[in-house]
Amino acid sequence: MRVAKASLRGRRLARAIIKIREDAQLMVSEAAELAGFSQSKLTRIENLKIGIKAEDVATFCDALEVPSDVKSALIRLAGRAKGRRDWWVPYAKVLGDGIGWMELEADAVRAYSFTNDVVPGLLQTEAYCTAMIRMINTRNSGEDIEKRVAARMKRQERLKDSSLQLWSIIDEPALRRPMGGHDVMAEQIDHIIEMARLPHVSIQALTASTHSAIGVPFHMFLLDDGLGVVALDDLFGGTFLDDDGVFAGYMDTWNQLTAAALPFDHSIELLETLSRDHRSTSNESRSTNTERMEEEHAKRK
């Protein structure tokens, strides 16, 4: 099921309303009567024809005797569904369909990330991010690229304030690819090492030649309303899968990846080695270029 990215919070809220009603074994007409809604109103809410206000969420939850913690989470979600105060509003034009991804990260309490060709966005340095976005968005203006980079840096604030837990598995090719050059890559890997020292961030490097998710990078978010969502990155913002069975299947794959990847301490050792390798390659390249220039200068004399 592909979830409409711009209305992801609304879909989550409608799904929660349906689940509450179904768990109570009530028909739409019965639940509507208990909550003091018209049957038409509840039907339209469940079918995403209209949104549901926070006060209506509270009324519905009280009528169906929903636990207070679930009720509070859904009221918060209803308030956020309007999206008027979200940090990414000034970046909406350049983010486009990527707003759905911002919603997931903003509402998540825990994120899992497996990447095989790039460093995940939450761990990227500004220089690495700029190089990658310039490569992908060749038709964008310099100003748009700057805004995209700024938005990605803004996303990382939830890691800085410890409000989001991140577990990232990075395939070795992504760590060896010199995105932006070897100096940029060395700085990027040093940043990953620094982030891995935070108590709420876990990093593993994957060096296995074969594994259960080969060729299939993915991300998973456990949201503050209890919903699990799988996010598959693409050129148009991402595909989001909120089916419980799909999430469970990806979690099984995740567990296999964690077993195949290097332990945390060995991952840091590999990262330190790769950082030195990138710097050494960069220094050798500079030395070679200097020698070549000196030779050319000598020939001209």
From TrEMBL:
A matching Pfam family: HTH_31
Q: Where is this region: Disordered?
A: 275-301
Q: Which residues form the HTH cro/C1-type domain?
A: 17-70
Basic and acidic residues: which segments have biased composition? Answer: 289-301
Please, which domain of life does this record's source organism belong to?
Bacteria
The record's section on InterPro entries has: Cro/C1-type_HTH (IPR001387), DUF5753 (IPR043917), Lambda_DNA-bd_dom_sf (IPR010982)
Protein name according to UniProt:
Helix-turn-helix transcriptional regulator
Organism of origin is: Amycolatopsis minnesotensis
